[in-house]
């Protein structure tokens, strides 16, 4: 982990984040779709000065490590990723509108855990890799 910087802060904040698709529908069963979800989330994160470490998109949920500057509250970081990715996903995959006619791909809730000295980023990344459905 490296220390990141903004004009007024130096930080090393990492989170383990997970959220599911609405109704736990397995809409990301194709590898192509999973890869596109990863690309979309990484693009959004970069636009907001966030960094995604490792990311695993499964058929019905997402696991990732996420670093965000201190000016972005963790809840806001998740809100940004989920809301903007939904817009991109509906544009990229029109068939999602048939599955999610209410306009929401993701559930309202999420899991987040800060990563620190006793729960290292490396241990979380190992856990995320183990979540892959290929194991």
Instruction: Count every beta strand, where a strand is a DSSP E run of 2 or more residues.
Output: 6
Q: Note the beta-strand portion.
A: 15-25%
Number of domain modules: 1
* Radius of gyration computed on alpha carbons: 15 Å
Q: Please state the overall shape, judged from the principal axes of the Cα atoms.
A: globular
The CATH architecture assignment turns out to be 2-Layer Sandwich
Full CATH superfamily name:
Transposase IS200-like
Q: Helix proportion of residues, in percent?
A: 25-40%
The N- to C-terminal Cα distance equals: 27 Å
Q: Please write the CATH class name.
A: Alpha Beta
How would you describe the overall organization of this protein?
The chain has 135 residues and is α+β, with helices and mostly antiparallel strands. It has one domain: Alpha-Beta Plaits (2-Layer Sandwich). The chain has helices at 31-47, 74-92, 96-99, 121-130; strands at 4-5, 10-11, 15-20, 51-57, 61-67, 111-114. Helix 1 (31-47) packs across helix 2.
Break the fold down into its secondary structure elements and pairings.
Elements: E1 4-5, E2 10-11, E3 15-20, H1 31-47, E4 51-57, E5 61-67, H2 74-92, H3 96-99, E6 111-114, H4 121-130
Antiparallel strand pairs: 1-2, 3-5, 3-6, 4-5
Helix pairs in contact: 1-2
């Amino acid at each position: 982990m490296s220390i990141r910087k903004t004009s007024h802060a130096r930080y090393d904040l990492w989170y383990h984040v997970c959220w599911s698709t609405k109704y736990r529908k397995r809409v990301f069963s194709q590898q192509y779709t999973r890869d596109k979800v990863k690309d979309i989330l990484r693009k959004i994160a970069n636009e907001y000065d966030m960094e995604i470490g490792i990311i695993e998109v499964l058929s019905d949920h997402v696991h990732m490590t996420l670093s965000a500057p201190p000016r972005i509250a963790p809840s806001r970081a998740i809100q940004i990723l989920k809301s903007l990715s939904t817009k991109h996903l509906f544009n990229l995959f029109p068939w999602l509108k048939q599955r999610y006619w209410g306009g929401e791909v993701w559930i309202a809730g999420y899991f987040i855990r800060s990563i620190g000295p006793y729960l290292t980023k490396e241990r979380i990344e190992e856990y995320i890799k183990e979540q892959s459905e290929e194991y």
